[in-house]
Amino acid sequence: MRTLLFLVFCSSGLAQAGESAYDRVVRTALERAQSELEDSVDIDVAEVDWANAYEQTVGRFTVRTVRSPAFARRLAQRQDAMFPRYQTLIEPGFEPGNMVVWVLPSIDDYNEFGNRYGAEHSSMHGSFLTNEIPGTNFEPIVTYHPGSETQLDMWITHGAVHQFLERRPRGDPDLWLSEGLASYFELNWNLDYGKQALQNYYRRGRTVPTFSLLRQGIGEYQAQPESLFQIGMLFSYLLNHREDTRTVIDENGKVVRQPFVDYLQGLLQGRDVSASPVNSLLGQNLVTLDNDFQRFVMGNG
């Protein structure tokens, strides 16, 4: 049983007649501390089944889980805080509506549910988008708790970016672009982890040439989920590290240039990007890109 943590108040939560300014400040501070404490721990709650699961909504995200209201609220808060990062890059100003997340009780529930409703079910990765569930008017992002909240955040963000892309007026882009964006923002929760994982894949010979990576189908991503690390880290390299593609911001916070961002936004908005130097890099200079990227990942460049 989880332990219930609480603060004992010496006075009522309501302002009292004759309450001094000092007493009011202390009371307000205690109330704030109580609220923060409830948000930071899973307070003792009755065990529930999925039919009676807890739901919490923060901003655009509604999370459903059997664990606790505090757990659901934490997940929703973090996902809503991540949202502006991919909104700004993918479709500034676009609002996709409510984003529903179901954290199923176990991996067995996840697999069973995915086999029935999963639009892109991949237990190897940990989350998927559903087809519309009978009796509902939404398509939740479905996952389960792997034991690490950071890993769970990563899986939910991957699904949320896919859902954001699908809900845009232009719909889902080419698969490499969709998976690259979803994997990049997923790895934003822990880029060091992504880089270390990719280093291991290089050592074990489990990476693919970028030419093939950009042309894989969904079945190949599911069969070789390490490709998601590879394309997510490739996007990070091109956006933030490679000299001729990264975003450069001056000391006043003004964008000086952003070649890869401009290229991605051009593709997402259906513009002609054939004159972009990034288009040449990804189309004609892939051997150079592969070598430079591997050196970056392995710490040699």
End-to-end distance: 50 Å
User: What sequence of helices (H) and strands (E) makes up the elements?
Assistant: HEEHEHEEHHHHHHEEHHH
Structural class: alpha/beta
The neighbouring-strand order within the major sheet is 1-2-3-5-4
Number of strands: 7
Rg, Å, rounded: 23 Å
> Tell me about the biggest sheet?
5 strands, mixed
Pick out the low-confidence regions.
1-16
Strand content: 5-15%
Domain tally:
3
Shape: globular
Helix content: 40-55%
Number of helices: 12
Integer average pLDDT: 84
Explain the overall architecture.
- This protein has 301 residues and is α/β, with parallel strands linked by helices.
- It folds into 3 domains: 1-44, no CATH class; 47-172, Collagenase ColT, N-terminal domain (Glutaredoxin); 174-301, no CATH class.
- It has helices spanning 21-40, 69-90, 107-117, 149-167, 175-187, 191-203, 210-213, 218-223, 226-240, 259-268, 277-284, 286-298; strands spanning 54-58, 61-65, 99-104, 127-129, 141-144, 248-249, 255-257.
- The strands form 2 sheets. It has a 5-stranded mixed β-sheet. A two-stranded antiparallel ribbon has the order 6-7.
- The longest helix has 22 residues, at 69-90.
- The chain starts with 20 loop residues before the first helix and ends with a helix.
- Mean pLDDT is 84; it is low at 1-16.
